[in-house]
Amino acid sequence: MRKNKLKKKILFSAIQPTGFVTLANYLGVLKHWKYIQKDYNCIFCVADLHSLTKHDNNFNLRKITLDTLAFYLACGVDPKKSIIFVQSNVDEHCKINWILNCFSYFGELSRMTQFKEKSRNNRNINMGLLNYPILMMSDILLYNSNYVFIGDDQKQHLELTKVVANRFNKYYGKTFTIPKNIMFKQGSRIMSLHDPKIKMSKSDKNNKNSIFLLDKKIEIYKKIKFATTDSESPSKILYDIIKKPGISNLLNIFSILSGKTILQLEKLFYNYNYSMFKEELSKLICKKLYNLQKRYFYFRKNENYLLKISRIGAKVASTKAKNMMNIIEKKIFL
Ligand code: TRP
Fold first, then answer.
1. Which of 118, 223, 278, 288 is catalytic?
2. What is the mean pLDDT of each run of 10 residues along the chain (334 residues)?
3. Any catalytic annotation for residue 202?
4. Residue 73: CB within 6 Å of ligand 1?
């Protein structure tokens, strides 16, 4: 049993707490965490330092961090099996960040798609936005992660992590483990309900674009009802990402939640029009979210428990991070 635990590979994953968690976060990342705990030594981090890149007056980071922790537990992350911690509780993330800063180039960072998107039409282009991928590298490399579980939009950051880790290893000899990407194809591209060409995101200013895990039944029905569908006629329920991106997105959501393939769904809904299909989808989403919400509120009510879990997690993570920092510092400094 113990031997088995030692042999397991390390997997790191994190979500930055900003606003409420969306259905896209859930289907792309959170939903899988419960299951991967069996096969890996998992480290699940609430990346609150990353959230500081966003300045929003309505933003209570302490509260949102607790919300996010409660979501982790509600989704089945088990503190007995995995390390759950809050990033700002482990000082080494900022410490290693400086070192990795000095091994990453301005050109590399300014070319990141997410940076370009976030800095477009934004007056608040703080250095944290540019540095964002380096802080991600810090999280990943500090724990010798073999695998990183990320959403589709973070893939580029992981590629940069590999480049910088290799660069450092060339200078100082093998220090960092080069991480691999784990991504579940299904669920990694859930699109906005109103504009199926962009991703559903928790930082989207128009909250009708996203379904949030805490949305009430009535809100879910409304959002799905008004979700963009395609003017293709006849209004058949068919998957065609080019001609029918709206319906394809909804079919994709239905497929993941129900476990049925797209092909099965196309057959099942052959005689349905858009609004009948949307009705079925709303019903399914509500059913799935109901249990999740129940578990979420159970954990969220008990702040002392959440604080205790994060304290224990930070202690274990700190020990690992300090060990790694020692190795790095011995190679570079006096
Ligand atoms: N940037 C990720 C997000 O958008 C969160 C994150 C922070 C992360 N550090 C990470 C993901 C390290 C994977 C590995 O939510």
1. 118
2. 69 91 90 93 97 85 96 96 98 98 98 94 92 98 96 91 98 97 78 90 78 95 92 81 92 94 96 95 96 96 98 98 98 96
3. yes
4. no
Task: Check the CA dihedral 13-18-20-23 and report its sign.
Answer: negative
Answer whether residue 309 is part of any domain: yes
- Bridge partners (DSSP) of residue 147 are 11, 180
Q: Are residues 26 and 174 in the same domain?
A: yes
Question: Which CATH number do you get for residue 19?
Answer: 3.40.50.620
Read off the tokens for 237: 């329920």
Q: Is residue 15 part of a domain?
A: yes
Q: What is the pLDDT of residues 176-219, one digit of tens each?
A: 999 999 877 666 689 999 999 888 887 677 778 899 999 999 99
Backbone phi, then psi, for 135, in 5-degree steps? -65, -35
Burial 80-98 (b: 16+ CB within 10 A, else e): eebbbbbbbbbebbebbbe
Identify the active-site residue in 3, 7, 170, 202.
Answer: 202
